[in-house]
Design a protein that fits this description.
This protein has five helices and 13 strands. By secondary structure, the chain is an alpha+beta fold. It is elongated. Helix content is about 40%, strand content about 25%. Strands 3, 4, 6, 7, 8, 10, 12 and 13 form an eight-stranded antiparallel beta sheet that branches. A three-stranded antiparallel beta sheet has the order 5-11-9, with no helix packed on it. The termini are far apart. It has three domains: about 60 residues, no CATH class; about 40 residues, no CATH class; about 120 residues, Glucose Permease (Domain IIA) (Distorted Sandwich), CATH 2.70.70.10.
Length: about 300
Amino acid sequence: MSVDKKNKKNKIFRNFKNKYKFVIMQDDTFEEKLSFRLSRMNVFVIGGISVIILIIATIFIIAFTPLREYIPGYANVNMDKKVRELALTTDSLIANIRQKNLYINNIKNIIEGKDIIDSVQQDIKINKNYDTISLSKSREDSLLRKEIENIDQYNQYNLSANEESGSSIYSIKDFLFFTPLKGIITNNFNPKDKHYGVDVVAGKNSAIKATLDGVVIFSVWTLNTGYSIAIQHQNNIISVYKHNSALLKKEGDFVKAGEVIAILGSSGELSTGPHLHFELWYNGMPVNPVDYITF
């Protein structure tokens, strides 16, 4: 039995070494075009090497080329970089929003006569104790305070009296307003419905202009009113321009009457189409722009 098994194994090994001729001939003339002398061992070796090379090439493609993006389960090769860039951009936007909110709150506090918010100063005040400090008014300080109070009372009295007569420079009626946008009024001033301005419709990409000389105190994008800009004018007059497609001035810029400050648009969730929502505020109260401006 053992001899037969040994002979059978030798026969199998010899069959692996036997040479075979692989010939390619032309069908019509039987002319030999190409021939190879191969054995079974050669075929297995060449096939094994080819499989190994194919596996190595596949691993290289998956590991080092962008083609792996097309294989299910692999993410974009630039995803990590984009995530880091988005994280940095988000941090910058959050910091910018905090600064904007602090600035807007300070503007509101200035208008309402309240103290200015300063986070740095607040932290210093919390960490220090000022209970031991005693302050006393000097005679000069008392006289200065009284003089300032008398001046304010005098101005307020004259302002009210002159507004009734309509003949003083302190009255809003004495200002010559520049028309911010020539067009058709589609929605009038209606404080009962909290519509504190007028909606003016005009041609696409029309220029929005400042109605008076002043300083830009508000120039941002908001969810409801889109690209909005507000200008502080003399005598406690503020003009507001909402739903623009683009803003051409930034906060702190000084603008002249008739100067282009924005482009007509339809930005914000409260907008129903391209138009300008224009508001005019006087001494903290909204007034009807139609009473002072011809659109």
